[in-house]
Write a structure and sequence with these properties.
The complex is a heterodimer of chains A (337) and B (336).
Chain A (H helix, E strand, L loop, with lengths): L2 H22 L1 H16 L5 H37 L1 E2 L9 E2 L3 H8 L1 H33 L5 H9 L6 H12 L6 H8 L7 H4 L1 H26 L3 H9 L4 H12 L1 H15 L4 H6 L11 H11 L3 H26 L6
Antiparallel strand pairs in A: 1-2
Helix pairs in contact in A: 1-2, 1-3, 1-13, 1-15, 1-16, 2-3, 3-16, 4-16, 5-10, 5-13, 5-15, 7-10, 10-13, 15-16
Chain B lengths: L3 E10 L2 E11 L4 E5 L6 H9 L6 E6 L2 E2 L10 E4 L11 H11 L4 H14 L15 H13 L5 E5 L7 H18 L2 E6 L2 H7 L2 E6 L2 E6 L1 H6 L4 H6 L6 E4 L1 H5 L4 E4 L4 E4 L5 E10 L3 E8 L3 E8 L9 E6 L5 E3 L11
Parallel strand pairs in B: 3-8, 3-9, 6-7, 7-8
Antiparallel strand pairs in B: 1-2, 1-4, 4-5, 9-10, 11-12, 12-18, 13-17, 14-15, 14-17, 15-16
Chain lengths: 337, 336
C-alpha cells in the first residue's frame, strides 16, 4: 500500500463523516428511514410481520453498513497504528514501537501551532468573505434583471473549476507581481505592485479559496431568499420598515438556517484546504501559509516520516471534532425547525 | 381621517388590463367590502390602495391628499394579509410592536400600546409565543393586532378569513364587526364570499372583470340588483333566472326571482313541478324543483315542509318581488 493513499484517506474521510454525524445524526439517518418504510408499506400486515420485516431489512442493509464501517475504520485504525511506530520511509524495515513520541514531537513542533493558527485563519477568513459576499450576491441576483439565467450560471461557474486550476489561474494571471492583473492595475495607478504570495501568503490563499466557495454560499443564500414569503416583505413595507430594517429584521433572520448550513458545510472542507497551498506557496514562505493538512503532508512526503505524519493526522481529526462540537453548540439550534 | 377616493384608477399587467378604470369614494368610518369571483381584480384594487402595486393610471386620494406616488408606509393604512404574514422568528409581542419600533416610538409607549392591543384581542397570555405555536384564529388576531397598534386611518383586509375553518370564520366575522364598532375606523375588506359581504358591510362593491358592477348597502343590492351579475352573485341560495317564453310574456329577456320569494303548495299554484332534491337544513328547506315549461327552480320553504324527491308541488312566484332584465342583462326598473 502506498503511504500517500492511507494517509490522505484517514484524514479526509473522517472529516466528512464527522460532518454527516453532526448535520443529521448518523444513526438517525439510517434507522428512521428503515422504521418509516415498513409501517407505511405493510400496514395491513400483523405486528409480527412488521417485526419480521424490520429484522429482514436490517439484515439486508448489513452489507452496505459493514462496508461503510470498514471503509472508515480500516484507514483510521491503520493511521492510529502507524502513529505509534517509528516509521521512516528512508529506513525501510526498521519500524519499531515508539509510544507517544510521535505525538510529543508533533505537538511540540513550533510549526504545529503556526499550522493550527493558519488553519483557523483560513476557515474564519473564508467564512467571513463567503457568508457576507454570498448574502450580498444573493440579494443582487434576486432582483429581476435581463439575462438572469445566464448570469446565475456564470456566478456558479467558479465552483466547477478544480482547486488546482483555479489556484494556478490566480497565481499566474492575477497575483503574479510582474505579469499579473493586480500588478498591472497597481502600476497603472503608479503604485508598487504587491508580491502577493511573498508578502501576504495566507491572505492570498484565503482570497483564492473564498473565490471558489463564494458561488456555493451565494446559491444557498439565493434559494433561502427566494423562499421568503412575498407577503411578509409587503407586510414589513406596510409597517414602515425601510430597506435596511427589512434586511436586518426580516430577511436576515429568515436566512439564519441557510447561513448555518453554509458555515457547517464550508467548515468541513475548509479545515482541509490543501491543493491551493500546494500549487501556490508550498506552505511558504517558511511556514507562513502552512495549515494542518499541509503540515501532515510535509511530514509524510517531504520528510518521509510516516509515524509523525500519522500522529499529525490523528491530532487533526481530534481538532476537527473539537471545532465541530463548538460549532454545533453555537449555531446548531438554527437547524431545528 | 380615513376617507379614500379612487379617481379613474387603472391597472395593467403587461398585456392584461386587470382594472380598466374605476371611480370609487369611501367615506370615513365606513366598512366597505369588495366582493366578486376570483380573478375579478378585487385584491389588486386593495393592493393599489395600499400602495403595494403602482397604479397604471388615475389617482388615489387618501384624506384629501393625493397619495398616488406615496410609499405604502406613508399612506397611514394597515393591512391584514391572507396568509397573515406574521414574522415567524419574532414573538407575538415583537410582531405587534414591529410597526411602532419602525416608527421610532419610545419603548415604554410601545409596551403600553402592545399590551392594550393584546387585551382587546385576548392575546395577553400569548405575547411571548412564536407565531407557529398559535392556532389559526390566534394568528389572525395577532395580524389584526399588528394593524391596530399603528392607529391607521384605514384597515385593509385581504381575504383574512379564507384560511380558517367554517366555525372559526363565523366567530372572527363577528369579532371584526365588533372591532369596527369599537374603533369606528374605515375598513376595506376583500372577500369572494358574499355571505361575509352581506353580514359585515356598510357598503358592498361588487366587482367583475375589473369593473364595478354595483355599489350599495347590502339590502340595496339584495332588493334591486342593477344587472344579472349582481343578481346572481348576491343572495344565497342564488336567484332563479328564467328566460324564454315566460320572461317574454313579462316584457323581459330574463326574469329573476329569489328562492325565498316563491311560495309553495301541494295543491295549486302557477307552476307545476317535480322535486328533484330536497335539502332539509332544519330551519329551512331548499327544494330544487323542475317546473314544467320554466325549468329548474330553487325554492326556500319552511323548515318542516315535508316533501321528498319525486313529489309533485305547485309553486307561485311573488310577482311584486320579481326582477326583470333586458337582453343586455340590465335591470328594467319596476315602474316601467
Amino acid at each position: 500500500m502506498a503511504p500517500k493513499d492511507w494517509n490522505g484517506a484517514s484524514f479526509t474521510r473522517t472529516v466528512p463523516e464527522w460532518a454527516a454525524e453532526c448535520l443529521s445524526g448518523f444513526g438517525g439517518l439510517f434507522f428512521t428511514r428503515e422504521r418509516a418504510l415498513p409501517s407505511k408499506n405493510f400496514r395491513s400486515g400483523l405486528a409480527m410481520a412488521t417485526l419480521h420485516t424490520r429484522s429482514a431489512a436490517r439484515l439486508m442493509m448489513a452489507p452496505s453498513v459493514l462496508l461503510l464501517l470498514a471503509w472508515m475504520i480500516i484507514p483510521l485504525a491503520m493511521t492510529i497504528y502507524f502513529s505509534f511506530l517509528r516509521y521512516n520511509l528512508l529506513m525501510p524495515g526498521m519500524e519499531e514501537y515508539a509510544g507517544f513520541s510521535n505525538y510529543s514531537y508533533f505537538l511540540t513542533d513550533p510549526a504545529f501551532f503556526t499550522a493550527i493558527a493558519n488553519t483557523l485563519l483560513i476557515v474564519v477568513g473564508v467564512l467571513l468573505i463567503t457568508v457576507v459576499g454570498g448574502i450580498l450576491f444573493a440579494l443582487l441576483l434576486d432582483q429581476p434583471m435581463f439575462g438572469q439565467g445566464i448570469v446565475r450560471i456564470l456566478v456558479i461557474a467558479p465552483f466547477f473549476v478544480m482547486p488546482t486550476v483555479s489556484a494556478l489561474v490566480w497565481k499566474n494571471m492575477f497575483m503574479n507581481p510582474v505579469n499579473g492583473l493586480f500588478a498591472w492595475i497597481a502600476k497603472s495607478f503608479g503604485f508598487q505592485p504587491i508580491d502577493w504570495f511573498a508578502s501576504v501568503p495566507l491572505f492570498s490563499i484565503i482570497i483564492i479559496v473564498a473565490w471558489q466557495w463564494l458561488p456555493f454560499a451565494t446559491l444557498i443564500m439565493l434559494t433561502a431568499l427566494q423562499s421568503l414569503d412575498e407577503e411578509q416583505k409587503e407586510a414589513a413595507e406596510m409597517d414602515g420598515a425601510g430597506a435596511f430594517s427589512k434586511f436586518f429584521y426580516i430577511i436576515l433572520p429568515h436566512m439564519a438556517r441557510a447561513i448555518t448550513v453554509v458555515v457547517l458545510i464550508q467548515t468541513i472542507f475548509l479545515l482541509s484546504v490543501f491543493a491551493e497551498i500546494l500549487v501556490t506557496t508550498n506552505g511558504g514562505p517558511g511556514i507562513q501559509s502552512t495549515n494542518l493538512t499541509y503540515l501532515v503532508y510535509a511530514q509524510a512526503l517531504l520528510q518521509f516520516d510516516i509515524g509523525g505524519a500519522s500522529a499529525g493526522g490523528i491530532v487533526a481529526v481530534i481538532l476537527a471534532n473539537i471545532v465541530a462540537f463548538f460549532l454545533v453548540r453555537l449555531i446548531g439550534k438554527n437547524l431545528e425547525a | 381621517m380615513g376617507s379614500i377616493s379612487l379617481q379613474k384608477v387603472s391597472k395593467v399587467f403587461g398585456e392584461a388590463k386587470v382594472i380598466p378604470s374605476i371611480d370609487l369614494d369611501i367615506n370615513n368610518g365606513e366598512f366597505v367590502v369588495f366582493v366578486g369571483p376570483s380573478g375579478c381584480g378585487k385584491s389588486t384594487l386593495l393592493r393599489l390602495i395600499a400602495g403595494l402595486e403602482d397604479v397604471s393610471g388615475g389617482k388615489v386620494v387618501i384624506d384629501g391628499k393625493d397619495a398616488t406616488d406615496a410609499a405604502p408606509s406613508e399612506r397611514g393604512l394597515a393591512m391584514v394579509f391572507q396568509s397573515y404574514a406574521l414574522y415567524p422568528h419574532m414573538s407575538v409581542r415583537n410582531n405587534i410592536a414591529f410597526p411602532l419600533k419602525m416608527a421610532g416610538m419610545p419603548k415604554e409607549e410601545i409596551d403600553k400600546k402592545v399590551s392594550d392591543a393584546a387585551r382587546v384581542l385576548n392575546l395577553t397570555d400569548y405575547l411571548e409565543r412564536k407565531p407557529r405555536q398559535l392556532s389559526g384564529g390566534q394568528r389572525q388576531r395577532v395580524a389584526i393586532g399588528r394593524a391596530i397598534v399603528r392607529q391607521p386611518s384605514a384597515f385593509l383586509f385581504d381575504e383574512p378569513l379564507s384560511n380558517l375553518d367554517a366555525a372559526l370564520r363565523v366567530n372572527m366575522r363577528l369579532e371584526i364587526s365588533e372591532l369596527h364598532q369599537q374603533l369606528k375606523t374605515t375598513m376595506i375588506y376583500v372577500t369572494h364570499d358574499q355571505v361575509e359581504a352581506m353580514t359585515m358591510a356598510d357598503k358592498i362593491v361588487v366587482l367583475n372583470r375589473g369593473n364595478i358592477e354595483q355599489v350599495g348597502s347590502p339590502l340595496e343590492l339584495y332588493r334591486s340588483p342593477r344587472n344579472l351579475f349582481v343578481a346572481g352573485f348576491i343572495g344565497s341560495p342564488k336567484m332563479n333566472l328564467i328566460s324564454g317564453d315566460y320572461a317574454r310574456a313579462q316584457n323581459a329577456a330574463t326574469i329573476g326571482i329569489r328562492p325565498e320569494h316563491v311560495s309553495l303548495s301541494t295543491s295549486d299554484g302557477d307552476w307545476r313541478g317535480t322535486v328533484t332534491v330536497a335539502e332539509h337544513l332544519g330551519s329551512d328547506t331548499f327544494l330544487h324543483v323542475n317546473a314544467d315549461g320554466v325549468g329548474p327552480i330553487t325554492v326556500r320553504a319552511g323548515g318542516e315542509f315535508g316533501v321528498k324527491h319525486g313529489d309533485t308541488v305547485f309553486i307561485t312566484p311573488d310577482k311584486s318581488r320579481m326582477h326583470r332584465f333586458d337582453d343586455k342583462g340590465l335591470a328594467i326598473p319596476a315602474a316601467a
